[in-house]
Structures are given as structure tokens and as C-alpha cells.
Amino acid sequence: MNHGVEQVAGYPAANRLLALGLAAGMALGAAGCTPGEQASPNVSASAEAVTGPCVEPKPNDPNLVSKAQRCLKAMHGGKVLLVDFDAPPDTAQSAAAELPKILSTYTQDTVDLSFQVVAASPEAKKAYKATLAVGNCAAPNTDPAKYGGSIADKLMPAQTKGADFVLGITGAVPCKETAAGMANQTGGRYADVYMGVYKKELATGDKQTLEDVKRTGAMLTAHELMHLFGLGHAGTVALDSGEGVTDLSGNGVLLGQPKINLGTYLKNATYDQYSDHSNVMGSGYEAYLSSDRPTNKMDVGFLNWPKYATGQAENPAHEITAEETMLDRKSAETGQYAAVKLPQPFKLHSEPKADSKAQADFEPVKFTGLALVPLISKDANYGVEVVLTSGKTVASMGSLVPKNIGEDATSIVECAGVRLEVRTKGQQVFVRQLA
After folding, report:
1. How far apart are CA 199 and CA 269, in angstroms?
2. How many Cβ atoms sit within 10 Å of the Cβ of residue 351?
3. How many CA atoms lie within 13 A of 149 on its CB side?
4. Integer distance in angstroms from the first to the last C-alpha of the chain?
5. How far apart are CA 400 and CA 414, in angstroms?
6. Coil, strand or helix at 228
7. In contact, 370 and 376? CB cutoff 8 Å
8. Where are the alpha helices (DSSP H) in 26-145?
9. Alpha-carbon distance 282 to 85, whole Å?
10. How confident is residue 334, by pLDDT bands cut at 50, 70 and 90?
11. Is the pTM here over 0.70, yes or no?
């Protein structure tokens, strides 16, 4: 890499920053809509039913508090109905059994839900099948009327009554490999998971394979469900140095250099919105979250917007101003970080997918914020993780780290019209915005 920025690989990276589905209305599973695409209204259902309980209102919304209270009620004790549309055997039931543990770990008990599985009625199955393409293929679409969850809501009202969210667990296969599920909108009510993609694996009859598929189904369902709570995707930034592509999320840029220009550094970079392989909002479907696995506290902060709106908690994001913001071990433990709005969007092109015709098929993703997440343990100061943000979608860019763990170092960091002074001192990191 030759962009005038000294780097060090293998430095301790922050807990992976997760989040699946773009906050500006994006809705997918292992993929689906392109960045910025938003679900169209469902004229056959009420706006309330389509919207769901956790669409985050604007700060000046006169009903902000009542809407926040509604979302809090859904977060704690809310009901999720999983409707089985001929999914592989036991996958819906397995998801219902595993989801409470997955969500408890991933959200640090911020989300506590109950799950129920019902079989789709013959009428609902027929209606859903009519939405599929040739070969039992589900085309990623933004019309919520075509979701299995939405169809069940319309044709099975006795079963769906009282449910906060309705998800279709289906035996369909995605028409594009970039879509293993869809959510009808960020903060919506409906989502589908396409489990038919695993039919070949299940045909082997191998017991371990069946367990792996069930586990993956539970993670995919958690991914789509978190979209309905407002989370976006968790990706990373990769850099092509001409000698190969490097995922920056595990790399560090050395503090102590006079100036670090992130625009220059990321000149040949691309963004993959699903490339966080360790968590549910990236592409970590194969990684089962256990109690000893690190969780992304930034996502937990995003989920807690109803508590901020109702005065039950303080937002962990500290605005970066001309006055210094200090981040220490306590900040790291409680999920606090420093953030600044970029005066101009920072654009990164998405990586081309296997079913893409060309790079031109992908519009650049526009990031509008920058966050610095402290990397401080009880024994050492590792600097900060640098994260681009777009609403509640995040992309890890790697770390700003001192050459030697725990030493004092200072650099001026520039990004999209913002100039920041970042310095480490002992077990603390100080950040301020420069003119």
C-alpha cells in the first residue's frame, strides 16, 4: 500500500461493528436491495401494519415519545410470529428456539422477544407461490404485499393478531445469490428468509449438516429481524494496493504521523456491506454467537434510541467539537464513542457481486458520519477503531494506533472536509475538531 500512510497489520482491532440492512430504508438478508432502495407502500394493508412498531421518528416529531414507548414495548416482551412456508424440516422451530439466546448475546439483552411458529395456511401458501418466479425462486423485491409475512398477515388474521412482527420462513430459493432474505423496510413489520437455498446440503442426510443449516437459519432470521428494529448492515472497507486486496478492519494506521488523510488512504478502497464475518448484521451466519463472543456496543446504542427519546438513558455517541472529548477504559466498556457529521459525503464503491455485470452496476455508497470507537483494555491503550457511518449502517476502516501499545502519540486526521486531532496519552484517547 503506497498512499503516504504508514500501516501496521495484525494490530488488535475493535469488536466488529455490525448491523444488517441500510438505515435509510434498506432491507435485506444475506443481501437484497441495493443501497438506498426502499420498500414501496403496501396498498392492501394499513400503513401501521406495514410500518411496524420501531421506525425511528425524526427528533422534532410531536409523537416522538409515544412512538418510542411503542417500540420499547415491542423490544421487551414483543411477539414474533414465524410462519412456516414449507421450509426445510424443523428449521423454523429451531430458529424459534435459538433466537432468544442469539438476541440476548448480540443485543446485550436490549431486545427480549417471544417466538411462535405456525404453519402457513393452504391459502397463504398458494398466494405466496404465486409471487415466486420459475423454479420456486424468490426475486428480491420491495413490495411488502409479496412477502410471506405480509401474505400471512392478510390471509391468517386469527394467527397473526397480536404479533409485533411477522416473518415468513420459506422453502424458496433466492433468484440472485445475493439475497438469502428480505425485510420490507427498516423498522417494518414483515420479513422473509429463504431456506430453500440449503436443500442440496440437506439432501446429504448428514446430521451435522442439518444442525449447521438450522443454526444458519436462526442467524439469518435474527439478521432480518434486526432490520425491523432499525439496524443497517455491518461491513468493512477493503484496499487494493495493486498487490492484492486487504481487509482494513484488522489493520492499523500508525498515530504519530503529522497528518493522516483518509481520503488519500482509501483512494483504491471498496466497501462490502456484508463483510463482517463475526456477527449477525454482516455475514457471520456460520458463526454461532456464544456468551463469550464480543458484541458490538455501537449497535446496542443504535437500538436504544427509544430510551434516549424517553429520557431513560443517555446516547453513548459524543459529538466531536473544538473542545476535547476524552475516551478511556470506562468509555470502551460502556459502549461510548466519539462521532462527527461529515460536511460532504464520503463515497465508497461497493464490491461487485458474482451476479453483477460490471462495477458500474453499483452506485457508490455515501457515508455521512465518522465515529472513533475506543480500543482500551484494562491493561493497554490500543487507540481507536475508525468507522464510517450512514444512519445505522457501519463500515470498519481499521484502527488508529500508537506504534507501541500504550505510548503517547498525536496525529491530524482528515476526512471529507473534517480535520480532527487524535492523541493517545496513557490509558486515554483525546479527540477534538480543528478549524
Report:
1. 36
2. 17
3. 33
4. 29
5. 12
6. helix
7. no
8. 47-51, 64-75, 91-106, 122-129
9. 25
10. confident
11. yes
* For residues 9-20, average pLDDT: 28
Cell numbers standing for residue 168: 415468513
Dist. CA 21–CA 18, nearest whole Å:
10
pLDDT per position as a tens digit, 132-148: 987 778 876 667 788 99
Q: Are the C-beta atoms of 388 and 370 separated by less than 8 Å?
A: yes
**Set of cell numbers at residue 260:** 493522516
146 touches 131 (CB < 8 A): yes
Residue whose cell numbers read 473534517: 418
| Closest-CA residue to 283 (of 229, 247, 240, 251) | 247
What's the pLDDT tens digit per position in 249-263? 556 777 888 888 888
Per DSSP, the three-state class of 263 is helix
Return the C-alpha cell found at 96.
Answer: 424459534
339 CB contacts (<8 Å, ≥6 apart)?
Answer: 317, 318, 319, 320, 369, 370, 371, 372, 389
**What stretches of 361-427 adopt beta strand conformation (E)?**
365-376, 381-390, 393-401, 409-415, 418-425
d(CA 153, CA 124): 9
Q: Taking the mean position of all CA atoms in its chain, how far away is CA 267?
A: 25
Give the integer Cα–Cα distance in Å for 387 and 301.
14
Q: Are 252 and 400 in contact (CB under 8 A)?
A: yes
Q: H or E element: which one contains 247?
A: strand 245-247
For residues 233 and 203, give the distance between their C-alpha atoms in angstroms, rounded to a whole number.
Answer: 31
Cell of 323: 473542545
Cα(360)–Cα(349) distance, rounded to whole angstroms?
A: 9
**Residue in the block written with cell 459502549:** 335
